[in-house]
Amino acid sequence: MKAGFQTVFFKEMKDVLRDRKTLLLMIVLPIVVVPLLLNLLIGFVIKKEQEARTEVLEYVVFGDEFAPELAKTFEAANGFKKVTLGSPDELVAAIREDRIDFGLVIPEKTAAQLSGQEQASIELHFDNASMGSKVEDRVQDLVEKFNDELTAARLAKLGVPPGQKQKSLLEPVRLRKQGTGKIREVIGDRIGGMVPYFFIAFCFMGVVYPAIHLGAGEKERGTLETLLLAPIPRHQVVLGKFLAVFCGGIIAVLLNLASLGTWLAIKAGELRGIIGTLIGSIDLLDLVLLALMLIPVAAMFAALLLSVSIFARNSAEASTLISPFGIVLIVPAALAMLPGVELNWFWASVPVTNVSLAMKELLKGTMDYTMLLAIFASSTLIAGGLLFFCAKWFNRESVLFRV
Amino acid sequence: MLQVNSLTKTFRLARKKRAREQSLDPREKGRWFHAIDGIDLGVRRGQVLGLLGPNGAGKTTLLRILSTSLKPTSGVVLCDGEDLTKNPLEIRKRIGFVSGNTGLYGRLTAREMLRYYGKLHGMAAAALDERIGSLARKLDMGWFLDQRNETLSSGMRQKVSIARALIHDPEILLFDELTTGLDVAAAESVLTVVAACKSEGRTVLFSTHHMDEVDQLCDSVVIIHEGKLCFEGGVDAMRSQTGESFLDKAFLRLIRPKTEGATT
After folding, report:
1. Fewer C-beta neighbours within 10 Å, C or N terminus of chain A?
2. Residue of chain A whose alpha carbon sits nearest to that of B61
3. Do the beta carbons of residue B244 and residue B231 sit within 8 Å?
């Protein structure tokens, strides 16, 4: 014969998995929607990037007669179209109204400066508020090309032959960067903070609905009272419910992990091998440890949200009470994304953030396993404490029969 | 035999309720609400005891204490001489409880739900299946046993609730406003089950607002008003004590002096 909590657990799982909303949040969302959204998002970013690099930029030049060679460089370049504008005073308005992409203003003295072997300055007017704009990069490339040609010609005129001689003159000492960080560490540091954030957020989402359904939902439906009359201790009822809610979080995380991993493996080539390099450098043990770290997090969320839910009079009140927890619990996870926030004994003592940072270190491959063990143990202890509180809470008449 | 002696139950009032203007309810004393105040009653095996009282009188609180959902503040409840609060898990095996607003698990079928409660009561699979079959025949619910509860009508749902309360074959049944919201046919069908429970020798506490049900089923009656017992006796005693032939009027006569006292 099964123990009381097992009977409660299997019934709750059956009940929860027969609900469309739960299936949507726990299974459909991670398997279908997340890869679909990522696909759309990455596709959109790549498309915009390509468009920004290849779109024809319309520009005006004032004072092209003072630097005709430079003006010709722009006219000859692909992807640039020269247009006309009344006066330089109209430049700002024309750029803001999107009539032109940029404007160059070449001062009168430029001609004398160029012929006199002096350094000249020209002005570039463009919309620097537009994040995706490549105007600055593309104009810079053309000006650099013009500068290179002019420099080579000037040096040749001074008797320096083109090639290595000119290079040694222009750059006597060349700095060759040899980073000691492995590629995995570098990539892990850049994107490693995002991965735990997503997993912890999905874990939370996976826990929310079962917690509401099995706590406040039971009160609302009038089934809690009959369940409390079953001849099993209340802590077994709580344990059965807790395990079902906890499984909700774990299932959501594992499905996310699987669906995200599959998507990344397929898309790794398209993402120029960066993600592929990262995936390739993560071994099975790291993946197991990553999943393992989420267990106490799911347990913490399950115990906490079940306590909140059982306090609420109905599902609507439970949703209202749980919403702020979404922010309170997810923000610590997001801290791992901030630059300069590294795993040390201070951060190892901050719940949720410590797990998030530990997962980041696992992705980087620089995990201190003593610290990992300490984080796992402390998180499990907190989850156990919250479960104990939940069981005590479940024994209070003022909570169960709150009016 | 179920024996209740000097039973009281007080609840702490919420701050916002206390902050409001002073209540006229004499049961509110400071920050405490005396839902049940010194109730004594007894029910013999095989008897149906009608539990009457206006809304908010304390009937549901009393039934919740008897079903072990709530703990009494003071007083004693004895079930065949055994204190209810000492070993509630054992007592629960002997009690079945159904109320008018008892819910069902909508996503489970009636059979799955009965199995669930049977397992919680520690019943073995074979005995459980046999018991479900027997209850299905008795309550005429075999034809909807494998339908999800969310698809059932009110009458069908109440039958499932009763079957749930009877699954472990309890000696004592607590029914709280069992026919609330049911149509005449469904109510009649449910009352037949209550009568059958009596004939099987079970002890029944039956809370209701319908005097015809009291007349039809109850061996004795207690009336609770504002948390206190204001009548205990047979149905005929209700009539003779008040001089009213209709139970509705007899009930009102018995509680009216209290109501008037509270409002003046």
Report:
1. C
2. A401
3. no
